[in-house]
Structure formats: structure tokens, C-alpha cells
Amino acid sequence: MSEAPAGSRADYRHFHAITTRWLDNDAYGHVNNAIYYGWFDTAVNAVLIARGLLDVAAGPAINLVVESGCRYSRAVVFPETVEAGLRIAKLGTSSVRWEIGLFTVGHDSAAAQGHFVHVHVDRTTRKPQPMPPLFRERLADLIA
């Protein structure tokens, strides 16, 4: 497992486009730092939903974020489009360490690099449980 997310587009396995919004900018004229975490969540959950691994409303299991972090390198400003690069640094028995690079058009280096750790839990008890084999199969191409 790497200690810090990778910083160029070539280091990521999948990209998800996210449109910035007017309200994402703060008083300093750039996207507020808290918005970046929402982009991380959006990109990862979009992949899980698209691959049939997350039923937000009724699935028996959900994924809880238990750790997160972000390093900022360059400001993002509305109306830029963000391209969230994803990769998996570690796929454990009941957890996944996602690494995300946020890129803007025309840049090969990340404007921000972040990570978060998901723990796969029972929806009702919130206790960790092993990810089913299908989960591992459908995420295998994202492992770095």
C-alpha cells in the first residue's frame, strides 16, 4: 500500500467527470476544501453503483468511511470540470483504501490527491463483514 496517492493521470485506473457548481466557490474565489470530500464520495459511489455493488436504498450492506485525507496542490475554480481518477491501494477482507486524484482539463498533475478507507458493514448492525466475491471481482481492475 502506498503512503500517499499518486499524482498523475497515468497512476489512476478509472475516471469520473464532475461538474463544478457556482456554489462550490467560496469567498476566496476557489472551490472550498470541504467540497473535495464530496467529490471523492461521488466518484467512488458512482463506480460502486454502476458496477452493481451498492444499492443505496435497500442493499443488505453499506460502506462507511472510517478514515480520509486530502493534499491540495492547485486551486479548482467554477466553471471547471473535475475528472476524479480512482484506484484501489488495498482491498482487504472487509475494507478498501480508495485513492483519488482530482484533475482539471489540460493538467496531467492532480489539483488534489486524497484517500479514504471504506469498511463494508451490515446495514442494520453496522458491524464489519467480509465483502462477497462478486465485490472483489468487479473491483479487481481498479487495484493499483
Defining traits:
disordered N terminus, 17% helix, 144 residues, globular, single chain, five-stranded antiparallel β-sheet
Structure in words:
The model is unreliable at 1-5 (pLDDT under 50). The relative contact order is 0.26. The chain is an alpha+beta fold and 144 residues long. The chain contains two helices and five strands. It has helices spanning 33-50, 133-139; strands spanning 14-19, 61-72, 81-91, 95-104, 112-122. The protein has a five-stranded antiparallel beta sheet, covered by helices on one side.
Short synopsis of the structure:
This protein has 144 residues and is an alpha+beta fold. It contains 2 helices and 5 strands, in the order E-H-E-E-E-E-H.
Shape: globular
End-to-end separation: 9 Å
The low-pLDDT segments are 1-5
Number of strands: 5
Task: Going across the biggest sheet, name each strand in turn.
Answer: 1-3-4-5-2
Distinct helical segment count: 2
- Estimated radius of gyration: 15 Å
Order of helices and strands: EHEEEEH
* Biggest pleated sheet: 5 strands, antiparallel
Strand content: 25-35%
- Write down the overall mean pLDDT: 94
Helix residue percentage: 10-25%
Structural class: alpha+beta
